[in-house]
Amino acid sequence: MSVLSDTEDLLRTTRTVYADDREAIALIDQLDVRLHEPLRLAIAGMVKAGKSTLLNALLGERIAATDTAECTRIVTWYRYSPTPRITMHLRDGGVARMPIRRDTGLLVFDLGGRTAEEIEWIDVEWPLDGLSSLILIDTPGIASISADTSAATTRFLTPEDAPSSADAVVYLMRHLHGSDVKFLEAFRDTAAGVAQSICAVAVLSRSDEVGSGRIDSLLSARRVAQRYERDGDLATLALGVVPVAGLLAEGARTLRESEYIAFRELAGIERAERERLLVSADRFTRDSAVTGLSVAVREALLARFGIFGVRLATALIRDGVASSSELSEALVQQSGLIQLQEFVQAQFQPRAEILKARGVVLQVQRLLRDRPRDGTDRIRAGIERFAASAHMLRELSLLAEARAHGLPVAADDAVDAARILGASGIEPTARLGLPAAAAGSDVAERVTTEIDRWRALSASPVAERAALAVYQAVLRSLAEIASEVGATRPLRSAPHVEAPGGPGDGLGQDAAEQGEEHQPGLHSKKRLQWRAARAQRHPFR
């Protein structure tokens, strides 16, 4: 059975055992919805780290508030819906619809005179394709001078007595601060035992500011990000560090034709005059006779793209970019946004099922702890089955360990182990270091060769315990690849395989079961929609 099927069975069993407990059944309804909805990806970071700006860039539309208004102090969900709708969920349990209104292209959040303290969360349903596979969650800044503002994020992402409400986190930082490390530690520690894993990526935000807005600022930012990736504190808490110029990315994804025309006007100015005009943000917005652009237009460009973005856009146009669509694409490429999207696509999206199941199982464990009763043995057995199929979580932890301290194996083996564990993505070809278009026979041949190699390493009488744990995890990953691609060569000499004792244990014997294609959920769409309506009352589970 798949992780999804096992978790569905666990919820059905829990529902039967707690059938007479209305609060428990309400929780199970919410968990059922969580298991079948898209991955919950939270955007977190300190105040003014650029969270809402990055979210707009990811969405390709300016629907997240980026100013200092009340709404930036409220946890806000962005999920797919065929028709736009915004709902406020109040602390007193009530709900209120918000009018949909735009101002200069930016969605306006009208709280109807309410303060942030009166609102628990805001639900933005929007017809964007990007939200069909991800639920994006904008959170208030941590380490804020407002205790209530920081508490909202803490309550949602790192509660003391419950698992996190997010499946994974994109954490923004302008530089590495003690508060950043503290938050990521807390997010990791909301799970325990086999479910504890590394489900965060760090973003060096506003990276254009690293080089003071120079045209090569992102090169400097990449060097800083690489240094942070080797930092012992951060490396064990995040799977990577990606530099992103969020303001540039947002401006590029929402570039208007009038802005392209303004950039073209700037690019046509004589070089010496243009360089003097762009020497600083202050100089750029002064009265000037060298350009026909008004001060108001230049101020708007600066607000939308920053001085780095203005310099880069004019340079790209002078290098041959000839249309607004070409400029948009080029700016997005330079911003670092694509690298972040590729990271999420490679590391979180393929693991969405197990990350969602992890959150559900943790909540079931909490239910057993908080509301103990007789007859829960079958529930505990279901939790143990999840632990036995949680190898992907073990992979994430080992990848973080590999970056922080290196794996306790030979250097060449460590590089190959990280790749097989999913450092470059979890597609079989990526794990095996083959071209994406490699033939199935080549993949099958490579995986059996690798199994022989790693089994020989694990059989070495001088292998230390820490190295053996890595070998076993790699073999487990290879076994799943073998099952997925239909490698016919048996993985062991015995005619029948045995199930592993737990995640990362054994030598990948359970390949056939672990590599099966996931089956569709057993719940009808109608019943899920009914439960979803109930769960909307409070999704912080």
Describe this structure in words.
The protein is α/β, with parallel strands linked by helices. The protein has helices at 3-17, 22-36, 51-59, 147-157, 178-188, 217-229, 232-235, 246-253, 257-267, 271-277, 281-284, 295-318, 324-335, 337-348, 352-370, 377-388, 391-405, 411-420, 428-432, 440-458, 465-485, 511-514, 525-535, and strands at residues 39-45, 75-80, 85-90, 95-97, 101-103, 106-108, 119-126, 134-138, 168-173, 200-204, 241-243. The strands form two sheets. Strands 4-3-7-2-8-1-9-10-11 form a nine-stranded mixed sheet, with helices on both faces. A two-stranded antiparallel sheet has the order 5-6. α5 (178-188) links the parallel β9 (168-173) and β10. The longest helix has 24 residues, at 295-318. The two termini are 25 Å apart.
Topology (elements, then pairings):
Layout: H1 3-17, H2 22-36, E1 39-45, H3 51-59, E2 75-80, E3 85-90, E4 95-97, E5 101-103, E6 106-108, E7 119-126, E8 134-138, H4 147-157, E9 168-173, H5 178-188, E10 200-204, H6 217-229, H7 232-235, E11 241-243, H8 246-253, H9 257-267, H10 271-277, H11 281-284, H12 295-318, H13 324-335, H14 337-348, H15 352-370, H16 377-388, H17 391-405, H18 411-420, H19 428-432, H20 440-458, H21 465-485, H22 511-514, H23 525-535
Parallel strand pairs: 1-8, 1-9, 2-7, 9-10, 10-11
Antiparallel strand pairs: 2-8, 3-4, 3-7, 5-6
